[in-house]
Amino acid sequence: MKASRAVAVFSLFFLSVAAFGQKPKNIKASRWNFFSPEQDVELGKEAAAQIEQQVAVVNNEQVFGYVNRIAGRLVKQPEAGQYPYTFKVVYDKSINAFALPGGPAYVHTGLISSAENEAQIAGVVAHEIAHVALRHGTAQASKANAAQLLAGIGGAMLGGGSMLGQLAQLGAGLGANSLLLKFSRDAESDADLLGARMMAKAGYDPVEMAVFFQKLEEEEKKAGHSTPQFLSDHPSPGNRVKAVSAEVKLMAKGLTYSKGDAAELQQVKQVINGMPEPPKAGVNFRKAGDPQSARPAGGGKQYRSQGLAFVYPDNWQVFPNQQSGELTVASPEGLVDKGGQPDIAYGAILSLQKVQNRDLRGNTQQYIAGIAKGNGLQMGNEGTRDLKVGGLPGLLHVLYGQSAFQGQKEVVLLVTADHPQGLFTLVMICPQGEYQASQPAFERLITSIEFPQR
Ligand SMILES: [Zn+2]
Fold first, then answer.
1. How far is the CA of 100 from the centre of ligand 1 (A)?
2. pTM of the predicted model as reported, rounded to 2 decimal places
3. 181 and 232: one domain?
4. How many distinct structural domains can be found in the chain?
């Protein structure tokens, strides 16, 4: 009797050691967050209202119902926490999905079209839910802007101001490289694992999430395509399939997984395929503008993001383009309707272009050729001027064309710089009659540019 009891104790000891070595990771929201969960919800609502002005939300019952049934199974799981989740479908052919702090989430039609099965869509949705539950957006904004947030958001909350507005002033609002939407690799691996747990409990095969992300990465490599938006916002923590498979091994036994309903996905894909292209959502651009009302005025506001800072006129605004990553800086009066598309008649556009090498002159010539062709511009006689842009070697060129303000000629100043991540471009546009008046503001814009270290 005694001997066998000793054996039993001994083997129990070994069992617990073995289990200890492979305990599932305890995944929690970071405590380093200046926002309360209630503020996450409020911020998400503000951001959702702004985003829905810019995107085309799909009003199709079948597509909406499909995504919401999938999401409904996932948000019931304890990992999702108690956030007021909403799920909408955006008509956009790019493969993307995103969730705002506190719960508003969006799935692009392009993502549904490219998914091989329902579980892959569930995987992306579960991953997004995990970012919300783990409060990654506001945790990131907190880390990046600790000092300003303590002063700024605290003040805004006391004064009842807009949090999103405050964040935007810090360059942490929405738009390209938004801190609220672009995550670290650590956050990615946590969202993968927590999402996988949600999927498993909801009956979806968790590995399909990792398979889908892996597929995106492989397609990107194979075709040498530019990075899909989803991957640039959700950088790969590396070997997702392996990590998720290891997690699945630690999950409760006896769960059954499926890849979902193949026939229903097929139907939904067909509905999406047959949808007419929606009219461009967005700001109501003026049919005809008044150049003088678009003229830069005032001392200057500061724009600051993780990698870029500059000063722009008080009466202008920064309009980030979610798709292209460009920043347009202009007064709303400077944006003119040209055949249903907004055209910048008075303002500036900043972007970072992907390049193969760091040949500033060659890359600049290539860029000029592209914009000249697309916009009917011609190079002026001014030639090329060297200058420094935020400490980097740069070039200035002058081009001329036809202004979107009717009957007027247009001057385009192009500044390019050799940025370690590509060709930095700053295009400044005004009608010829406004050239004198715009010059101080354009000069200030150029000289104020900084590329802060990330
Ligand atoms: Zn992610």
1. 12
2. 0.59
3. yes
4. 2
Q: Provide the residue range defining the domain that includes 258.
A: 37-273
Expressed in angstroms and rounded, the spacing between residue 118 Cα and the centre of ligand 1 is 19
pLDDT at 389: 94
* Ligand 1 centroid from CA 289, angstroms: 41
Instruction: With respect to residue 297, please indicate whether it lies within any of the assigned structural domains.
Output: yes
Whether residue 231 is contained in a domain is answered as yes
Ranges under pLDDT 70 in the chain: 1-22, 144-180, 223-227, 279-290, 321-324, 337-342, 454
Rounded Cα–Cα distance for residues 167 and 174 (Å):
9
Give a yes or no: residue 18 inside a domain. Answer: no
pLDDT given at position 324: 64
Distance (Å) from CA 130 to ligand 1 centroid: 8
Give the residue from 246, 273, 300 where a domain finishes.
Answer: 273
Which H or E run includes 425? strand 422-431
- Dihedral angle sign, alpha carbons of residues 148, 153, 154, 156: positive
Whether residue 248 is found in the same domain as residue 365: no
Separation of CA 257 and ligand 1 centre (Å): 22
Distance (angstroms) between ligand 1 centre and the Cα of 453 equals 23
Span from the CA of 233 to the centroid of ligand 1 (angstroms): 7
- CA of 187 from ligand 1 middle (Å) equals 7
CA of 380 to the centre of ligand 1 (A): 46
> Ligand 1 centre from 193 Cα, in Å?
11
Residue 253, pLDDT score: 79
Specify whether 257 is located in the same domain as 295: no
CA 19 to ligand 1 center in whole angstroms = 29
